């Protein structure tokens, strides 16, 4: 449910955020899990501005 709420704010689907959270948690542990939505939102915004996605 949290992924759906956060996804609405950054225009991402719930599954995108869940995948980002799982990957970041596997690499960085709990801090990665917490930071994943922020980094994902930043990355998605930058790629969208450069029209890569």
What can you see in these coordinates?
The protein contains 3 helices and no strands. The protein is mostly helical. It starts with a helix and ends with a helix.
Taking the alpha carbons of the first and last residues, their distance comes to 25 Å
As residue ranges, the low-confidence spans are none
Secondary structure tally, helices:
3
Computed structural class:
mainly alpha
Shape: globular
Mean of the pLDDT scores?
85
- Provide the gyration radius in Å: 11 Å
Beta-strand percent range: under 5%
Secondary structure topology:
Blueprint: H1 2-10, H2 14-28, H3 30-49
Helix pairs in contact: 1-2, 2-3
Q: What structural keywords apply?
A:
53 residues, mainly alpha, 83% helix, 0% strand
In short:
The chain is an all-alpha fold and 53 residues long.
């Amino acid at each position: 449910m949290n992924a759906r709420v956060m996804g609405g704010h950054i225009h991402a689907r719930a599954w995108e955020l869940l995948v980002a959270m799982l990957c970041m948690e596997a690499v960085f542990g709990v801090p990665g899990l917490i930071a994943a939505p922020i980094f994902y939102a930043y990355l998605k915004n930058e790629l969208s501005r450069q029209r890569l996605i």
